[in-house]
Design a protein that fits this description.
The protein has about 50 residues and is mainly alpha-helical. It has a domain of about 35 residues. The protein has two helices and no strands. α1 packs antiparallel against α2. The longest helix has 12 residues.
């Protein structure tokens, strides 16, 4: 939770968690968080077992 909102992370992939956190982060840090999510997930945004 931040002053910009709250994010539900349970049941999400690494990439989805990064996107959710970036959505509630201060605008100055959103692009960097999205890039980190991409790197951490190896570019995989789909849920495990769904392709």
């Amino acid at each position: 939770m931040t002053e910009h909102g709250a994010a539900e992370l349970q049941g999400k992939t690494v990439h989805q968690r990064g996107e959710a956190l970036a959505a509630i982060a201060h605008p100055d840090f959103r692009d960097e968080l999205l890039e980190a999510a991409e790197r951490a997930s190896g570019g995989h945004s789909a849920r495990p077992g769904r392709g």
